[in-house]
Automatic annotation (TrEMBL):
It comes from Herbinix hemicellulosilytica. Gene3D superfamilies: 3.40.50.2020, Glutamine Phosphoribosylpyrophosphate, subunit 1, domain 1. This is Amidophosphoribosyltransferase. PROSITE patterns: GATASE_TYPE_2. Coiled coil: none annotated. The gene is purF3. The lineage of its organism: Bacteria, Bacillati, Bacillota, Clostridia, Lachnospirales. Catalyzes the formation of phosphoribosylamine from phosphoribosylpyrophosphate (PRPP) and glutamine.
Length: 471
């Protein structure tokens, strides 16, 4: 059990092909920037003189890697890295990426963000061909499938394309090959983000543009849905949309803008910060209320709170002091102590909230447990009223494309009406952004969205030829 009852995204990927023998260090910095996408494990693999060397383990990026490992054991011009949050497979070292797969003429290291819905079927088929597996992760299945088809096709590009055609679900992939190629692939539905950056020394690929920024790469563009990109010697040598979205369903997961991505990233043409501010503005229009101050729940509700304040002309003030050094609540041995962990992490700022009517903005309510404790803590600190505003619609449906909500029984919006949820969490009123308001807030995105967790339906992808040319 964690302090937060937020949904979580599976992982982050980063890869680089550079003229300097510093690929591992660059990848380390990229993974540090992407740590918010996964905190259970981390790994880096490098291509060195036709071999693939790697190091991975459970823990945060800074815990897994030492200066000695990066400088002495992982030297190379090509590297691929991975941070993990497990949705498929248990939290063990064996399930941490990148996954290293050997085949007749070489090796590949594969980092995967997403979730493969036909992984069990593919694993069974590959086992019948004599392929062995060391983990329970779907990412190892992806790596093995790619290696198998590279062997069958006797060509790396053809093998990657062939394997991609068998994968169902969400996958943003970065693959490092022993033949000194770095390959990026995004699934044809575009569920998970992937972008490309460039500097004078080479090319980098990352889950989010913020990692490109911090590593000194200029953002070029996003990898298109269904596109395969090959990078050799720090240059792009192949880029083409080759994986087809046969039924035209899917789309970028809308939760990238609501919660998953870091707010200084740009995804498919839209600033995450701008999208979240727009969500707050939409909330203020849809659910106005007389109040004295607007507050955001750190950190995920802060940008939407800015938008609500701008649109409503209600002052924005901080309501909490956040302790950034508190870990996960399972380290506390009793439930009472875990309950106190919420307040230990977010302590109400009494001077700002005492006697005030508060609009409290957060990104989502999943199980409702944390929201209830936060509202209670504000009222205990003297808040006169707490009006909860949520920058996502009610989360009612499970997701199988890379988030960790696998049962509708875990979703409070499946059990209660909005009025009942409001009463349960102790708020004076509760308002969720509408799906229309959410889409309007994100209208600058070049892709359509998957909003299945709110509607139960997948959205059709509508990427025009002009959109692709502009990318």
């Amino acid at each position: 059990m964690e302090i937060s009852d937020k949904i979580h995204e599976e992982c982050a990927v980063f890869g680089v092909s550079t003229l300097k023998e510093e690929a591992a260090g660059i990848t380390y910095n990229g993974l540090l920037t992407l740590q918010h996408r996964g905190q259970e494990g981390a790994g880096i693999a490098v291509v060195s003189k036709g071999k693939i060397l790697y190091h991975k383990n459970l823990g945060l990026v800074s815990e897994v890697f030492s200066g000695n490992v990066l400088q002495n054991r992982l030297k190379g011009h090509i590297a691929v890295g991975h941070t993990r949050y497990s949705t498929t497979g248990s939290n063990t070292k064996e399930n941490v990426g990148p996954f290293i797969t050997e085949y007749l003429t070489g090796r590949i290291a594969t980092a995967h963000n997403g979730n493969i819905t036909n992984a069990l079927e593919l694993r069974t088929q590959l086992k019948s061909y004599g392929v062995d597996f060391n983990s329970s992760s779907d990412s190892e299945v992806v790596s093995a499938l790619i290696a198998y088809h590279i062997t069958r096709e006797q060509d790396t590009l053809k093998g990657v394309i062939k394997a991609g055609g068998y994968l169902k679900g969400a996958f943003s992939l970065i693959i490092a090959g022993s033949e000194n190629k770095l390959i990026a692939v995004r699934d044809p539905k575009g569920y998970r983000p992937l972008c490309i950056g460039k500097n004078s020394d080479g090319i980098a690929v990352a889950s989010e543009s913020c990692a490109l920024d911090t590593c000194g790469f200029d953002y070029i563009r996003d990898v298109r849905p269904g596109e395969v990109i090959i990078i050799e010697n720090g240059k792009i040598t192949y880029e083409e949309v080759v994986l087809k979205n046969e039924d035209e369903t899917g789309g970028l997961c809308i939760f990238e803008y609501i919660y998953f991505a870091r707010h200084d990233s740009v995804i498919d043409g839209l600033s995450v910060y701008e999208a979240r501010v727009n969500m707050g503005k939409a909330l203020a229009r849809e659910y106005p209320v007389e109040a004295d101050i607007v507050c955001g729940v750190p950190d995920s509700g802060l940008e939407a709170a800015i938008g609500y304040s701008i649109e409503s002309n209600i002052p924005l003030v901080p309501a909490f002091v956040k302790n950034r050094y508190i870990g996960r609540s399972f380290i506390y041995p009793t439930q009472d102590m875990r309950d106190y962990a919420v307040r230990l992490k977010l302590n109400p700022l009494k001077a700002n909230i005492e006697g005030k009517r508060i609009v409290l903005v957060d990104d989502s309510i999943v199980r409702g447990t944390t929201s209830e404790k936060i509202v209670r803590s504000l009222k205990s600190a003297g808040a006169k009223e707490v009006h909860m505003r949520i920058s996502s619609p009610p989360f009612r449906y499970t997701c199988h494309y890379g988030t960790d909500i696998d049962s509708p029984d875990n979703l409070i919006a499946n059990k209660m009406s909005i009025d009942e949820i409001c009463k349960q969490i102790g708020a004076d009123s509760l308002g969720y952004i509408s799906i229309e308001g959410l889409k309007e807030a994100c209208k600058k995105c070049r892709l359509s969205f998957c909003t299945g967790c709110f509607t139960g339906h997948k959205c059709k992808v509508s990427v025009t030829k002009q959109d692709l040319e502009e990318v």
